[in-house]
């Protein structure tokens, strides 16, 4: 595979950090970005210490000024964008602070559009681009107490379809990877929130809410998401665009 320059948002921990490390190990240059500049720097330094290529940058996907300033700060143009930045808040709608609701949508939907818009002209100019959105099973189905997250992730699928049509005249693709639960610090926080909202133990949240809908009954691995992302960058995937790549252990087969 041709070595590419890959920018990952929200890569200071969790899924983003795992995808960045895995793609760097395949010979790509990684631009590790995060709202927390220290976290981005740590992940980039770990990748470099392993003998691979990376740079770390602060990026607030909710800020137009932050996004617009980023391209000039990079060591090279971006070929591939992985929109991964995200957060969660679990509460019934009546108890959901609207400022928090707006924040989730701003980061996961509007932020995705903002970063994509900033990098898309360069992809067009160079004649190549790959955009991979890290969605969720909640881009396809719903769960109680997650109105903002589900709305943002459903919107991400529609956004991807529109961009697939807008970029069909170039060697650019955009797809959304939709995993069910991946065991990360974000999910660990959700377990506690779900336990509180549902009035049950954290163990029951895992067994009865998170894993029960999945016939395979196991959490998705970050390595799976990294491998799927790598495939979407490859030549055999050049006509896969506007699609949801569902990684749900059989959840939606029922």
UniProtKB/TrEMBL annotation:
<dbReference type="InterPro" id="IPR020904">
    <property type="entry name" value="Sc_DH/Rdtase_CS"/>
</dbReference>
<dbReference type="GO" id="GO:0032787">
    <property type="term" value="P:monocarboxylic acid metabolic process"/>
</dbReference>
<protein>
    <submittedName>
        <fullName>3-hydroxybutyrate dehydrogenase</fullName>
        <ecNumber>1.1.1.30</ecNumber>
    </submittedName>
</protein>
<keyword id="KW-0560">Oxidoreductase</keyword>
<dbReference type="Pfam" id="PF00106">
    <property type="entry name" value="adh_short"/>
</dbReference>
<dbReference type="InterPro" id="IPR036291">
    <property type="entry name" value="NAD(P)-bd_dom_sf"/>
</dbReference>
<dbReference type="InterPro" id="IPR011294">
    <property type="entry name" value="3-OHbutyrate_DH"/>
</dbReference>
<dbReference type="InterPro" id="IPR050259">
    <property type="entry name" value="SDR"/>
</dbReference>
<dbReference type="GO" id="GO:0003858">
    <property type="term" value="F:3-hydroxybutyrate dehydrogenase activity"/>
</dbReference>
<comment type="similarity">
    <text>Belongs to the short-chain dehydrogenases/reductases (SDR) family.</text>
</comment>
<dbReference type="InterPro" id="IPR002347">
    <property type="entry name" value="SDR_fam"/>
</dbReference>
